[in-house]
Amino acid sequence: APHLPRSLGIIIALQQTNTTIYCTMSKTVASGADAFVEPRKETRPDFKELKSIEKERREILLRAELPFWRILMFWSGTCLKEIATDSLVWTTLIIYIGIRIYANIVDYVPDSVELLQKTNVGILGGFLSFFLVLFVNQTNGRFLEMYGFSKACSGRIQDVAGLAKTQLPIEVADRLVRHFNAAHIAGYVGLNAIGQGSPYSKTYFFDHYNEEAKLLTPAEMKEISRHDMDNSGLCMKELTTWCQQDVTDARIAGHIDTYQEKFFHDKILAFRAAMDGMYDYTDQPPHFFYIHFLVLLSALYLPLFAIDTAYAAGWGADKAIGLDILQGLIVFLQCVFVVGLRSLATNMIDPYGDDLEDLSVINYVEGTLEICSTIMNARQE
Question: What separation in angstroms does the CA of 205 have from each of 32, 101, 152, 184?
């Protein structure tokens, strides 16, 4: 108002401004909160897609003993796709073809031909071959080690199911086996938090088996909901601890003695150690420095090999189309060797992805559930 002191008018104006800012910020925070609580859309494969991948994986495993001519007929699960889409292969072939086209156009022998005869690209190829084979051996060892961890997890669950069936009351044994199988499945879902991620999600993987096998009750699901199963291995850890608590409760209730309890705990902790091994290997792939070194060597060697081979294929009166084709085939085979070995090794780094060469996780989970069901329903006359 005009009759108010100037200082008081300024204070009122500031209060009105602050109120406006506060209201604007409140709306922004509320809008942000709404966006925060909005459920995330799951973009990983649904269960139907996972089963389709798993079916093809199992079919590929059966191809290993086929005759060679049938093996050559396949495209999926082979190195052909990697080679056909690798730009280094096409660059190398283009270099070779370009030089040979030039050689067939001109009638003289360039001075560079004599100079290139003094080079020895084969030495570089020998070193590259050694490092590539070493890389394949390293990743293959990792792959088989992680396969062993997966089978060990399944084995320890079966051990506990057999012990529980024969030593515990049926309701106590059923509770223990349910929790143990839930920990198994949650462990694969939690792998998404590390490494290259996992295609096995809580929504499409854990919830499917939980509903199908009645692993956890709604109250138990609510209890573990404080953990983000898709982005942490903590849910698996807690469920494993539940299994240990089930065993301790059984000993307190007098169903088993301390020696039997220790045997149960040893099996449960062995399961957790195997699952931790999977997490450890996934979290620490081969050093990027080493992979970059191999890629750099490949990118330098293959074009040099193409140039060396193209210049050695003949000039002037010594050139021949048949020799050009033969030397071109040798260049292509060298590309297959280098790029194929590199792709083979990199595909084995993370065996818990959605590649056809990865481990059959669904087969392990469903096999374990089926065996546990058989053990728990065993009857003897």
Answer: 30, 56, 21, 12
At a CB cut-off of 8 Å and minimum separation 6, what does 338 contact? 128, 132, 298, 301, 302
148 burial level (CB within 10 Å; 0-12, 13-18, 19+): middle
197 dihedral zone (left: phi>0; alpha: psi -120 to 50; beta): left
Could you tell me the CA-to-CA distances from 137 to 55, 344, 345, 347 in Å, in that order? Answer: 27, 10, 8, 13
- Rounded to a whole number of angstroms, the CA Rg of the chain reads 32
Triad 72, 136, 196: Cα angle to 5°? 95
Considering the entire predicted model, what is its pTM? 0.83
DSSP 230: G
Share of residues in the chain with pLDDT > 70 (%): 89
Decide which of 81 and 374 is more confident: 374
Per-residue confidence band for 39, with pLDDT thresholds at 50, 70 and 90:
low
pLDDT tens, position by position, 215-260: 999 999 999 999 999 999 999 999 999 999 999 999 999 999 999 9
Record the tokens describing residue 167, joined without a space.
């030593």
109/111 Cα distance (integer angstroms): 7
The three-state secondary structure class of 107 is coil
- Is residue 89 within 8 A of residue 321, CB to CB? The reply is no
Are residues 89 and 338 in contact, defined by beta-carbon separation less than 8 angstroms?
A: no
Residue-wise pLDDT for 289-305, tens only, equals 999 999 999 999 999 99
- CB-CB contact of 338 with 294 (8 Å): no
> In terms of C-beta density within 10 A (0-12 exposed, 13-18 middle, 19 or more buried), how is residue 377 classed?
exposed
Burial code of 347-370, b = ≥16 C-beta within 10 A, e = fewer? bbbbbbbbebebbbbbbbbbebbe
Contact indicator for 109, 316 with CB cutoff of 8 Å = yes
192 half-sphere exposure, CB direction, 13 A CA radius: 24
CA dist., res. 330 & res. 310, Å (int) = 10
Read off the amino acid at residue 13. Answer: A
How confident is the model over 198-216, as pLDDT tens digits? 899 999 999 999 999 999 9
Measured distance CA(140)–CA(256) in Å, rounded: 43
Residue 318 has pLDDT above 90, yes or no: no
